[in-house]
Amino acid sequence: MYNFNFQVATKVLFGEGQIKHLGEEIAKYTDKVLLVYGGGSIKRNGIYDSAVEQLKKHKVKVFELSNVDPNPRIESVREGVAICKENSIGGVLAIGGGSSIDCSKVISAGVKYDGDPWDLVVDKSLVKDSIPVFTVLTLAATGSEMNGNAVISNMETNEKIGTYGRCLIPKLSVLDPTYTFSVPARHTAAGTADIISHTFENYFTNVDGGYLQSRMAEAILKTCFHYGPIAYNDPTNYDARANLMWASSWAINGLISAGSANNWSVHPMEHELSAFYDVTHGEGLAILTPHWMRHILSDDTVSKFVEYGVNVWGIDSSLDRFDIANMAIDKTEEFFTKELHIPATLRELNLTNKDFDKMAKKAVQVKGGSIQGFVELHAEDVKKIYEMSL
Ligand code: NZQ
Ligand code: ZN
Atom 8, ligand 1: which residue's CA is nearest? Predict the structure, then answer.
C-alpha cells in the first residue's frame, strides 16, 4: 500500500427531509448563490420549490442557470461564470446529478480565474481557487457530490475531459434518497453501472496490500448488485435508493483508491463514446466493461478476477482459475443486460465503427500515449475493445 492523503471536506446531510437545513448551511458562506440545474426534473418533483423556500427563509438571494445538459457543455460553464462575476455571487448550488454538479464545480473555479474556463478543464493545475460548491443530489451515480472531479464536454472539438481540484470538493451535500424516487429506470440502471465501474476502476489495481480497501470495494459492488435491480423495479424503495446513494459517494471519494495506483481504464475509453456520440456515461461503461475484462484476462491478471468471482459472486474457489474468471465476467455482463436492461452492444446505441480509429487514438492521447491502468492499453487495444463491444 502506498502512502496517501485522505481528506473529504464535504458535510453530508443524509436522509429524508434534510433539505430543511439547506438555507442555514449556505447562509454560513454567502448571501447570494447561483442555483444550477438541468432540464427541469427538479421542478416536476418539487425539489426546486423546497430548496428555494429554504434559501429565502435564510435570506440567500438566488440566481439561476438551467438547462445544463447531460454530459455538461463548456458553454453552460461560461454562462454560469458570467452570471456569478456580474452579480458578485459567493457560492454555487447544484441540484441534480453529476452533470449539474460538475458544471457547478467548474463555474466555481471559473469565477476565480481570469481566462476562459475551458483552460481549467484542459489543465487541472490551473484550478487553484474557487467559490464554495453545495449540492442537492438527485441521482445516485457519479459520486460528484463528495469529490473534487468534474467532467466537461466540448462538442465542437469532440472532447470530454475530466479535471480536478481539492477546492472543488463540495462543502455541503444534501443526500435525500427520496429525491431519487423519480429517476427513470434507464438512468437508475446507468447510475448503478457507473457506481460499479468506479469501484472496478479502483479494485482492479496492481498495488498489493490494500486489503481493507479491496473488501470495502467488494461491499460496494455487492450493494449495487443487490439493490440496483430493486431500485430499477421498485423505484420508491427507500432502502434501495438510500444504499445506492451512499454507495455512489463512497465508490469515488478516495476511500477505496487510497494507497493504490488508481489509474483508470474503462472511463477514458467511455469518455470518447460520449465526446463523439453523446452516449449516456453509465450505459457506455456497462457495454465496454465485460469486453475490457475479457481483453485483459491473462495469467498475469487472473488472480484478481478469481478474487472478484469468489468474494463478490460466491463462485466455488476450487474450480479452475480461468473458469472462475470467465464466470465472473459473464455474470457481470448478465447483470448489466438482464437485471438492469442496459443494451449489450454499442450498435444498439446507434454507433458504427466509423470513428473507432480516431476515438482510440484520442483515448490514449489524453492519457499521455497509453492508458496505464490495471493493464496498459495502447490505441490498438482500445480499438479492439470498441470492436468487441460493437
Ligand atoms: O436534467 P434533468 O431534467 O434534471 O434530468 C436528468 C438527466 O436527464 C435526469 N435526472 C436526474 N435526477 C433526476 C432525473 N430525472 C428524474 N428525477 C430525478 N431525481 O437524469 C438525467 C441524467 O442526469 P446527469 O446529471 O447527466 O447524470 P449523471 O449523474 O449520471 O451524470 C453524468 C455526468 O457526470 C460525469 C459523466 O461523464 C457525465 O458527464 N461523471 C462525473 C464524475 C465525477 N464528477 O466524479 C465521475 C463519473 O465517472 C462521470 O464521468
Ligand atoms: Zn463514471
Answer: 70
